[in-house]
Amino acid sequence: MLFLERVNLWTDVYTWRMDFDADRYVWVQVADELRKRIAAGIYQPRQPVPSENQLIGEFGIARGTVRKVISHLRDEGTVYTVPRLGTFVSEPPKADDTGSPSGT
User: Fold this and answer.
1) Residue 86 contacts residue 44 (beta carbons within 8 Å)
2) Which of 5, 10, 30, 71 is the most exposed place for a label (fewest CB within 10 A)?
3) What are the start-end ranges of the E strands in the chain?
């Protein structure tokens, strides 16, 4: 669940923070949130997902956790990484792709 949190006591700046469940790994919850955003169209195919630093700031998690999230999403084909350019949302699978070999 996301909620607004005041950055500090001296300014009126707020940021979104995620309230993590204690019974699930943090990286799994962050990966689920990014998948939801991709499914909702917030992150479009071939468009970049937020950088490591942006995800660290938004979710308040360690860099290693962010890297695990991106690695997991990359392994499942949700995102792809282009060296020195960033991580991008993969194209959704085509509707006519049945997974069967061609010609059968």
Assistant:
1) no
2) 10
3) 2-6, 14-18, 79-82, 86-89
* Domains of the chain, CATH where assigned: 23-89 (1.10.10.10)
Instruction: Classify strands 79-82 and 2-6 as parallel, antiparallel or unpaired.
Output: unpaired
For 22-31, letters b (16+ CB in 10 Å) and e give eeeebbebbb
Q: Give 54's DSSP letter.
A: H
For residue 48, give the 3-state DSSP assignment.
strand
User: What is the Cα–Cα distance from 44 to 47, expressed in whole angstroms?
Assistant: 5
Number of residues that make up the chain:
104
pLDDT digits (tens, 9 = 90+) for 36-76: 999 999 999 999 999 999 999 888 899 999 999 999 999 99
> Which residue reads 């005041």 in tokens?
6
Q: How high is the pLDDT of residue 43?
A: 95
